[in-house]
Structure formats: structure tokens, C-alpha cells
Design goal:
Layout (H helix, E strand, L loop, with lengths): L3 H13 L15 E5 L14 E4 L6 E5 L5 E5 L14 E3 L3 E3 L6 E3 L16 E8 L2 E5 L2
Antiparallel strand pairs: 1-9, 2-3, 3-4, 4-8, 5-6, 6-7, 8-9
Length: 140
């Protein structure tokens, strides 16, 4: 019986912690997109620092080429606002994401807020490089 007490304590500790999902305002949607980098709309993704918009997610996806071989993919819906007509983020100056509802800004490299008093990070999706011309974006 005494051996169960530490396990019970650990279980209660972890179950009482808040979720790591700081985007709890946004609804969950399944994301499963394949991106062909040779398509004209994704031509900018062929160079480091390039970005493009893609379909999928709640309000679309922003894809960013980090260094020529790794990519980031983010939800376009502003993380701190319930989805609305003005909550679709845009890329500004090729290095930040901007929410037109409240003019808040986020870092394109990691999704963290650049605007004071914003406590949500941008929802990030998993990017898998299938081959030199194909990316798979998903949230599972």
C-alpha cells in the first residue's frame, strides 16, 4: 500500500497541470495537407526565408522555409481571438505574423507573441519533408 502513495501523488500532480495547448480558444480541426513545392503558388518556399499560404486548418496555413531543409507550418487563425471575419493572420515583412483584428504580431520562427499582453502562441502543425518537392502538413 505504501508503494502506491508515490504513484498516486505523481498521477495527481500531472493531472492537475494545465494543458500545454495555449491555443484553447481555437477549435480542433484535422489537418492533413500535401504540398507540392513545384506548384507556382509555393515557389517562394524553395528558398530559405520564403513563405506561402496554403489551404487547410481553420483559416488556412502559413508555411515558412526556415533554412532550406526544414519548414514551419502555422494556423492562420489568430490564436488569441475566436475565429471571426478579421482573424486571418497575414505575413508582414517576411518575419512576423499579424492579426488584423487587434494588430497583434507573432514571431514567424516559433509562433511566440511579439505584442505585449498576448499570452497565446500561434498553433503550429507538424511538417514532414517527404522528398525534395513534397511536404506533408498534419496535426497527428
Amino acid at each position: 500500500m505504501n508503494k502506491l502513495i508515490p504513484f498516486l501523488f505523481i498521477f495527481l500532480w500531472f493531472s492537475s497541470c494545465e494543458s500545454d495547448d495555449q491555443n484553447n480558444l481555437l477549435p480542433y480541426v484535422i489537418v492533413n495537407e500535401t504540398i507540392n513545392l513545384t506548384n507556382p503558388e509555393f515557389i517562394n518556399l524553395q528558398v530559405p526565408g520564403g513563405w506561402a499560404y496554403a489551404n487547410g486548418g481553420i483559416k488556412g496555413i502559413i508555411i515558412y522555409n526556415v533554412n532550406g531543409s526544414s519548414y514551419k507550418a502555422y494556423e492562420r487563425s489568430c490564436p488569441q481571438i475566436l475565429p471571426s471575419p478579421c482573424s486571418q493572420m497575414t505575413v508582414e515583412q517576411s518575419f512576423k505574423l499579424k492579426c488584423p483584428c487587434d494588430q497583434s504580431e507573432f514571431n514567424i520562427l516559433n509562433g511566440t507573441p511579439l505584442t505585449p499582453n498576448i499570452n497565446y502562441i500561434v498553433r503550429e502543425y507538424k511538417v514532414t519533408v517527404i522528398n525534395s518537392n513534397t511536404l506533408k502538413i498534419s496535426n497527428f
